[in-house]
Amino acid sequence: MKICSNKTNYNMKKINSSLIVEKLNNPSFSNLTNSSTKIIDMHTHTNYSDGALSPQELIDLAIAKNIGTIAITDHNTIEGIKTINRSDKLIKDSDIKIINGIEISAKANKGRMHILGYGFDLNNKTLNKKLVDLKDNSINQVLSIMEQIKRDYGIRFSYEDIKELVNANHNLGRPDLAKLCVKYGYATSIKDAFDKYLVDAYNKTRQSNNQLQYQECLELIINSGGIPVLAHPKSLELSEKEFLILLKDMISCGLQGIEVYHSSHTKKEMNYYLSIAAEYGLLVSGGSDFHGKSVKPDIELGTGKNNNIKIKKLSLLDKLEKRTFLH
To answer: Which carries the bigger pLDDT value, residue 207 or residue 189?
Structure first.
């Protein structure tokens, strides 16, 4: 299956407000909000990547918060979502919908590029094999960052700490190092560790990271039966011109959606990404990017940062509901 195509035509003219209104009134976009439904959160993390809660604890919290639909989107792994017992009485009684999800890291020259995947086959052999490779890559990446902060700041961790990281059953990331920095008094919090050491160390070592190209990420999700969505586009740190050029190419490679609603987005940015979704015919998604109080204390499940999101309807979810991957 050939994913990328050079034959796709795009209207790159400046978006005007009348065009946006016209497209948002179109039936394919009119279903984005509905106050009568429960909250939706399509972007969450568990302790199988860099979150604080177990998958079951996350689902329990979602039920307690009366969230109607949730996607577990751990970084580069689907092992957490596999542990959920969808026939559990509490889950069945709550009628919560649980969606197969993942957030795959892709190479980026600056900023961060993550691609979300939804509704894929958990048992797809190619996907699972590639994720094993990515777990091995995450170990090498963390060890590279560890060496960088040792060179730059003299921060050293014990052999036992390193051994524990390498043998961890989850994909490693900078939060693992941040926790060690807090443990040994190098930082007062996870955020403090990122600000002091880990952002800089990551940027210095990013070229050696064996992350996938975004074309590979898109192909992996599509070929496993999923829908690929560009996560928190603000984190790309691109100018509008750069962003639209990249987006056009990603669409030609199979991108189907964009994360409009996110805890890091301002209302103005959400409106902009919503207009982009309308202009390019992309599915609209959104979520809190919840990690747990000990990791991202200012982000709440379902409502984001300072209640900046409260999602009731998404065109992505409408698309998924026509398929068989929902609980």
So the answer is: 189
Rounded distance between C-alpha atoms, residue 288 and residue 169, angstroms: 25
Domains of the chain, start order: 17-121+213-321 (3.20.20.140), 132-208 (1.10.150)
Query: Looking at residue 207, what is its pLDDT?
Result: 63
Is residue 30 pLDDT above 50, yes or no? no
Is pLDDT above 60 for 237? Answer: yes
Average pLDDT estimate for 107-114: 87
Work out whether strand 227-230 and strand 257-262 pair parallel, antiparallel, or are unpaired.
parallel
* Exposure letters 211-242 (e unless 16+ CB within 10 A, then b): bbebbbbbbbbbbbbbbbbbbbbbbbebeeee
Query: What does the DSSP assignment read for 124-148?
Result: -HHHHHHHHHHHHHHHHHHHHHHHH
* Residues 294, 28: Cα–Cα separation, whole Å: 39
pLDDT at 156 over 70: yes
In the block, residue with structure tokens 């979502």: 81
Cα dihedral 327, 55, 291, 37, rounded to 10, equals 30
Q: Are strands 67-72 and 97-106 parallel, antiparallel or unpaired?
A: parallel
pLDDT of 64: 95
CA distance 188 to 181: 8
User: What average pLDDT does the segment 115-131 reach?
Assistant: 97
DSSP letters, 9-67, are ----SPP-HHHHHHHHTSTTTTTS--TTSPEEEEEE--TTTT-SS-HHHHHHHHHHTTE
Q: Chain centroid to CA 126: how far?
A: 20
